[in-house]
Write a structure and sequence with these properties.
The complex is a heterodimer of chains A (168) and B (193). With 168 residues, chain A is of the alpha+beta class. Chain A contains one helix and nine strands. Chain B is α+β, with helices and mostly antiparallel strands and 193 residues long. The chains are: A alpha+beta (168), B alpha+beta (193).
């Protein structure tokens, strides 16, 4: 009787002796508690540049009806006004081409030719089909809703290209 | 009468095609505090004829100097070179990675709006673009990489120094990388800003 209990205890010791290191090793390897523990940091930008225009949103232009490339970035100037800047920009020239803000989820923008009225904010005629250029944004423009820059030919309702703006 | 109309039509067609072909080039500078807005309009007028030769790798900076005559030391201070957004692979990862050039010429990687899952032994690395597509869940041992340091936190804005001499044309993807399990938590392919 007592030997049985003794061997049982002995076995338990062995089980403990093996399983404990295994458990510890597994914990060390996976650190599962980290799934619930967040480590938040908040470093400042590595340079003081509050007087410089700060980029708020940016995106790459992609061609639709015509090949279009470059980057569209919305900047906030020191005086608080916001403007759109196109860099490395290139598209095909065309008649009556405008720069608009549209909704990236708009089904109209998924086609090359828009049928009907495009829900958009007008920023002005395209200044040039190549090169860096700025367009001022109306103060009322809600960039959360109108989150796409569209190069749009008004005459033929053609979407030359668009860029989805993402938070910088 | 008919031939006159034909001539007019032909001329109109010619003008139309010419209008399509000439490319208008604009070259706006960055807006600064002083009256740059004027500049904007002015430059545009003659943008077409003038700017061809002027387009330059960093035309923005040069242009500025030319127009104003005063140097802009801040232009180099914290100029964003490349940027990209994270997509999660093994773990959900989101946010933006941007490489800046500091005034001393040093390259700094900054993560903003950043979020990933916490994990053991997580590092920030740059991966050579041709070695691993950024969709890889696990990195091959042959993948060339540049170590930027241990991940400082799984949430929030953070800066990492890029070793001097790092070739950004080669190392084009930022990866949040778990060394222990060789896992690519998330990756951000960088594109020119």
């Amino acid at each position: 009787m007592s030997t049985q209990i003794g061997s049982l205890l002995f076995h338990r010791k062995w089980i403990l002796a093996i399983s404990l290191p295994v458990l510890i090793a597994a914990w060390w390897a996976f650190r599962p508690e980290k799934l619930w523990i967040n480590q938040k940091v908040n470093e400042a930008a590595p340079f003081a540049s509050s007087s410089e225009p700060q980029p708020l949103y940016t995106g790459r232009l992609q061609g639709e009806a015509h090949q279009t490339s470059g980057r569209a970035t919305v900047y906030k100037a020191a005086d608080g006004t916001e403007y759109l800047r196109l860099t490395d920009f290139s598209t095909s020239n065309g008649p009556d081409v405008h720069v608009l803000l549209g909704r990236s989820g708009d089904n109209n923008l998924k086609q090359e030719i828009v049928k009907g009225q495009l829900d958009s904010i007008e920023l002005g005629s395209l200044k040039g089909n190549q090169g860096d250029q700025n367009y001022s944004l109306p103060a009322s423009a809600n960039l959360q809703q109108y989150d796409a820059v569209v190069i749009y030919c008004e005459r033929f309702h053609a979407v030359f290209g668009m860029a989805k703006l993402e938070q910088f | 009468m008919l031939s006159k109309i034909k001539v007019v039509l032909a001329l109109a067609a010619l003008a139309f095609t010419l209008g399509l072909q000439t490319s208008a080039r604009a070259q706006d500078t960055m807006k600064h505090d002083d009256g740059m807005k004027q500049n904007d309009g002015m430059k545009h007028e003659d943008g077409m004829k003038q700017n061809d030769g002027m387009k330059h790798e960093d035309g923005m900076k040069q242009d500025d100097n030319m127009k104003h005559g005063d140097s802009m030391p801040q232009e180099n201070n914290g100029k964003a070179l490349e940027t990209g957004t994270f997509h999660g692979k093994v773990h959900n990862t989101s946010g933006r990675a941007t490489i800046y050039r500091g005034e001393d010429g040093k390259l700094i990687l900054r993560l903003t709006n950043f979020k990933t899952s916490n994990g053991p032994d997580v590092h920030v690395i740059l991966v050579a673009a041709k070695d691993a597509d950024d969709d890889a869940n696990f990195l091959k041992s042959s993948t060339k990489r540049v170590e930027l340091g241990k991940l400082k936190g799984n949430e929030g804005d953070q800066n990492y120094e890029v070793p001097t001499g790092t070739d950004l044309t080669k190392f084009q993807t930022v990866s949040i990388y778990c060394e222990r399990f060789n896992a690519n938590f998330g990756a951000a392919p960088l594109e020119k800003f």
